[in-house]
Amino acid sequence: MSLPFIPSYLQDSSKGRTKSTLIYKNGxxxxxxxxxxxxxxxxxxxEPTLSWDPELTYTVVKRAASPIEKAKTTQVExxxxxxxxxxxxxxxxxxxxxxxxxxxxxxxxxRDQSIMxxxxxxxxxxxPQGIVLKxxxxxxxxxxxxxxxxxxxxxxxxxxxxxxxxxxSYHVYDADFFTRTYFYDNEHLELDDPExxxxxxxxxxxxQLLETKSLPPVSGGTPDKLQLKKFLExxxxxxxxxSYWDDRANAAAFGQLRKFQLHFFLADDSLQIVxxxxxxxxxxxxxxxxxxxxxxxxxxxxxxxRIGSAVEVHARTFIVYDLDEFTKDxxxxxxxxxxxxxxxxxxxxxxxxxxxxxTDPALFxxxxxxxxxxxxxxxxxxxxxxxxxxxxxxxGTDDKRSFIxxxxxxxxxxxxxxxxxxxxxxxxxxFLERRQVQKPKSKELYRESDLFVGAxxxxxxxxxxxxxxxxxxxxxxxxxxxxxxxSDIDNIQxxxxxxxxxxxxxxxxxxxxxxxxxxxxxxxxxxxxxxxQVIEACGFNLSDQEVITLMRRYDLDGxxxxxxxxxxxxxxx
Length: 573
Hints:
Layout: E1 9-12, E2 17-20, E3 22-25, E4 28-31, H1 54-58, H2 67-75, E5 80-90, E6 99-109, E7 114-119, E8 131-136, E9 162-165, E10 168-175, H3 177-187, H4 201-211, H5 226-234, E11 238-246, E12 257-265, E13 270-275, E14 288-293, E15 310-313, E16 316-323, H6 325-335, H7 374-379, E17 384-391, E18 403-408, E19 413-418, E20 429-435, E21 456-459, E22 462-469, H8 471-479, H9 489-502, H10 508-517, E23 525-526, H11 528-537, H12 544-554, E24 562-563, H13 564-572
Antiparallel strand pairs: 1-2, 3-4, 5-6, 5-10, 6-7, 7-8, 9-10, 11-12, 11-16, 12-13, 13-14, 15-16, 17-18, 17-22, 18-19, 19-20, 21-22, 23-24
């Protein structure tokens, strides 16, 4: 079965194989022309050879770039030619001029043969300037190029030629050094010398205004044009005098020495006074003391002002004590002044206020969180001491309520949880969100050493008594006896032996009798609660934490009870 006659494939019946109709010659893709009529015959047919044009089927074949073209593209990828040109613009509704010459720069980008036109900005011209034509490809007809339309080449912009772009005629009068070198090396053309640019009436008037010092007034009684010349020469040039006004002699109680800056604008001989206001000085924050206006007659000639001079403005005397660099340079070049030694002010030395550092984050204007001890956070992460507690408020209805107080060693925070109890009348759940808690009537936080069995803590006017703890809490307290001295078994034993030695009435028989008295079931062992009663009956003043430490140390079998034999080890050691 033969293949159908589809694009880019022809059936060769003589060789029995399919070949492509596209071949490459010298790196370019070109269509393969049929060699005989058998390649165009349908299967089993004998029709004559067809007149076939590959471009009708495949449109225009896009040829691959040769190595020479690739190297050329890389070379000119970031290069552009710059041509200086001008065009004439008609001016309507003006009695002084009918046309104006506008100078532009034509940039020709060699990479894609695109053009951009930019007009240089002329200060104080009042004309919209900048980009005249955005970067795009332009055809020889002067309009935007479409498809493969012939575009403008660099030779079209030779010096002295006229180029029409979008119905506007540009005359090229010069080119930069790189453009001239490019034409000489690549186009084998040496560009002409720069041509002069014609002056319009507006340009001639500006030149005449800058060259002359006196012009006759124009008709209609308008003022002399020297003011315009002065503005053009001195625009944005300001003399700055640093001065002060001392009012301490006139108002002894409320007078003060205040600093000002006198700004004299050379463009129109106007004066502005600005006050230097220090932070927290108590002065109304209005920095402009006198807005820009013509100076009063008492101001005098600005060219006669020197450092130390007194300048009177509206019945206030300002003493100049320093100048800025531009003003110094102005007086040095125009008046030959060389001494610019500043005047030392007689102002009181204000002692810097001593502000105590704020240590409490709550006292900041914007409260800041306290800095965390990351070493403590990493070392005590997920370490929690849990205690069983009861509330101590004197109300009998709360006696049966139980709480779990969790102390987080990582950041010294507390959380309180109340286990729900059925038919108790109290909704259980979270009693206190995890947070740092301060001791009553103090800014000190509760620490780990403040929590042990038997301790009473007050949390927001609620008193809790710690009655028990989990095994992890007991093990932690016994391992850190410096913070929990009530869990130090050695100190407890020394305390017991000291009590027995100081009380002659205590003997082994008395202790044994008390042990048997509280052993109600005659099992030979007693529980923790009964062990506490034995300790109290023997006159031993031990805390709940110390009793639990003894119980945990000598409960050898770990059943929660202690026998007399186990307790006798306490007395014998």
